[in-house]
Please model this.
Amino acid sequence: MVIRPYGYAIWEAIQDYLNVKFKETGHSNMYFPQFIPYSFIEKEASHVEGFSPELALVTIGGGKELEEKLVVRPTSETIVNHMFTKWIQSYRDLPLMINQWANVTRWEMRTKPFIRTLEFLWQEGHTAHATLEEAEKEAMQMIDVYTKFAYEQAAIPVIPGRKSRVETFAGANRTYTIEAMMGDRKALQAGTSHNLGQNFSRAFGTQFMDENSQIEHVWQTSWAISTRFVGGIIMTHGDDAGLMLPPNIAPIQVVIVPIWKKGDEKSAVMEAVSSVQNTLKEAGIRVKVDDSELRTPGWKFNFYEMKGVPIRLEIGPRDVTNKSVVISRRDIPGKQGKEFGVSMDPSILVDHIKGRLVEIQASLLQKAIAFRDSNIVDVSSYGELKEAIAEGKWARGPWSASDADELKVKEETSATIRCFPFEQPEGAKKCFMTGNPAEEVAIFAKSY
Amino acid sequence: MVIRPYGYAIWEAIQDYLNVKFKETGHSNMYFPQFIPYSFIEKEASHVEGFSPELALVTIGGGKELEEKLVVRPTSETIVNHMFTKWIQSYRDLPLMINQWANVTRWEMRTKPFIRTLEFLWQEGHTAHATLEEAEKEAMQMIDVYTKFAYEQAAIPVIPGRKSRVETFAGANRTYTIEAMMGDRKALQAGTSHNLGQNFSRAFGTQFMDENSQIEHVWQTSWAISTRFVGGIIMTHGDDAGLMLPPNIAPIQVVIVPIWKKGDEKSAVMEAVSSVQNTLKEAGIRVKVDDSELRTPGWKFNFYEMKGVPIRLEIGPRDVTNKSVVISRRDIPGKQGKEFGVSMDPSILVDHIKGRLVEIQASLLQKAIAFRDSNIVDVSSYGELKEAIAEGKWARGPWSASDADELKVKEETSATIRCFPFEQPEGAKKCFMTGNPAEEVAIFAKSY
Model:
C-alpha cells in the first residue's frame, strides 16, 4: 500500500499526539534493526507459532545466500529482548521504557487498505520492570492513553477491555485492547497493550539483580497502534459523500473557496480570502485556500466534502461588501449546516470557527456513541447471540465457557470475543453458553 | 545498529527542523512500500548496476518461495516512478513534490556506527517537474536547505558542490553534495540532491501532456539526508572528553546537578533546583535535572561532558543562600568556561543562559570553520596533491582531467573528488594533472 499525502497527514496527527503522551509517561524513542535472525524468533515458543505463517524472509544479501535467514520484523519483542539482556543488570536499570516508530511486515493474503496490509507503519512500546505489578500498571496505563486518544482526538468511542485467552497476543500473558465499531458494524481492534509477564525475559535470559542481590527475570510489556487506525477513522465517521474527519486530527480543518464571476471581482475577493486565511492560520487553525481556476466552486464543494474537511468557508463579492463569510459544516449536510453573514472581523471569526470545530468534534463522538450503543445487544443465550450477530450487531453477554466453545462460536457465527470490557455490569451472572456462573460479560462481534 | 534514545533524539531534532523546511518549500510527506519487485530495479540500467551488489532480497513470504524476488529498498526512485506514472497525466499534475521518512537497506560489509550501516534511517525527497530548468532549480534549492541546516543547526561548515561524473548517483545526471570535514580530517558526504533528468521517467514511461498537448517525459529530482548525519555531528565537534553538541540540536541543552552534603541541605537545594528547572523549561530550554543519589556530582560532571551537554548548572547550599548558580560551558574546558554567582532570578538567568547557548552555537561553528580552512591545501601539481593527502589534508586544485585520471588518483592516494565546490576562485586555471585549461577547482580527500 502507498500512503498518499492526505492519509499520511492523518497518521502524522496521530504521531504528534501520541509522541507527546509517550514522552510525558516516561518513554524514550529509539530504533532497532528490522532484520531479526530467525533463531531469535524461535526462542519464545508461542511467539514463533503465532508469527511464523506470516513472515517475510531475507535469504540473499550482497549477492550471497545468507547462512541464517533474516526475518523482516513482524514485531520487535525478540530483538528488543536480545538488547535488553545486554543493557539490564541491576534494579537501577529499571524500569526501561522505550518506543519506536517503524514499519513492520506481515505476509497477508487478503489485504484491505489501511486495515490489513502486508507492510504497515506503527509505534511499538517495549518496557521492562522489576515487578509484575509495575508491568501490569504500565500495560493498563498505555491502553488508557490509547482510549483517551481514540475518544478525544479521533472521536471513536472504543471499548477498552481484556482479550480472551484465544485472542491473546502470541507471547503475552494478557492482552488489553480497544475495540471500535466501524460504520458497517464490524469490529476493529484499534490498539493493543500486552502484559508479557516473564515469557520473553525467560526465553532471552533478561535478568537483573534486585535490591536484595537476588537475580530475577524482568517483567515486560509491549503496546502498539498502527496505520490501521487511519482506516478506523475513515470507517467510523464517513458517509456516502465521503470522509468526515474529526477536527482534532483533520489535516485541513477549514477550507476556503473563493467565488467570483467577473474578472474585476477577483482581486477584492482574493484580498479578503487571503486576509481571512492569515487570521485563521495565526490562530493555529489548519486552513487551506483552494484558488485553482481549473475547477468550479461546485466541484470544490464536493471535493472537500469527500475529503472530510470539517468546515468550508465561501467568500464571494457580496460577502466582501458585507465583510462576512458563509460557513458550511461537513457533519450537518445541506442548509441546516450553513451559516450566512458571519463577520470577517478576526476578533469574532476566530472564536466562532474555534467554537464550531469544538462542536463538530463533540458531535462526531456523540453520533458514534449513539450508533455503537444502538448496535450492541445484551444476550442471555447462544440463540440470542446468533440472532444479534446475524443482524450484524455486537452481542454482549456473560461468558465463562471454554476455549473450545469460543472457537465453536467463531466457526458457527464468524464472531469472536472482541474483549471482556473493563466496564462490567454489577450482580451475579450466568454464562449464556453453559449456564455456569460467570464473572464477566464478553463482547462478541464479527471483525476486520 | 541499534539507535539508543540519546542518539535518536539528535535524529528527531534533525527531523523536526527539516520537516518544517520541506513543507515550507511545498513538499508533502507520504509513504511507499519498502519491498520493490526486482524487475523495477532492473529498468534503469545504471541504477541496477550501482545498487545490485548491495541488495537484500526477500525470497520467501508467508512460507512460500516467491515467484519474483523482492528488493528491500536501498532507495525508492523505482517504486516512486512506478506510482508517478499512474498519478501524472497532465501538466496540471506537476510539479509533484513529495518526501518520505523511512528505513533503507544496503548490504555493507564494513560497517561503522551511524556512518555506514546495513540499515539506516533517512528522508528521501522525490519530485517531478515539467521542465529541466524547474528540476535543476529544485535540486539546487534542496542542497541549499541542507547547507543551511548544516551551518545553522549542526554547526558543520559543509562545502556544497557538484559531484564528478565518477561519483554521481547511479541514475542521476547531476549530483549535488554537502561535504563535511570530520575531526580526523576525513570527508563525510553528509547529504545529496540529484537532478535525475529524464532517466527514470524514460525507464518507467512517466509522461505528461504539456500545455500545447504534447506528450513529454517528466524531469525529476531526488535528495536525501540520513542518520549518517548524526555521526557527522559527533565526529565534527567531539573531543577527548566525549561529544560536544551544538545547542540547536542538543537533546539536553542544560543539565542541572544538585550538590549537597548533609541531609538537611537537601530540601533547600532541591527546591531551588526545581524552581530553576521550571524557569528554564517555561522559557523553552531543554533542561534535565540529574538528582540521582546513586552517583556523585563529580561522576555526573564527567558523564554529561561525555554526552556533550552544552551547559551544566551546579546548585549547592551556598548558591541557594546567594540566590545564584554556577555555570560551566562544555566548549570551554576548565576554569575559563566557569561562571560563578550568576543570579537565579528568572528575568536574569533565562536571558543569560539563552545568550550563552547562542555563543556556544556560534563558537562551535567558528572552531569548525577554522579547523576546516587550516586543513585545505591549494595544489597546482599532482605532487602537491599527493603531499597534502599524505598529510591527511584536503587538496583543492583545478581539474579537467579524465575519469581514468580521477580513478588513478583514487588508486594511488585513496583520495576521491569530493566535489567541485559552488564557490570557485576567479581567473584562468590550469588542470594540475594535465596542464590543460580547467574551468573549475575540485576538492580531493579521503572519505568515509
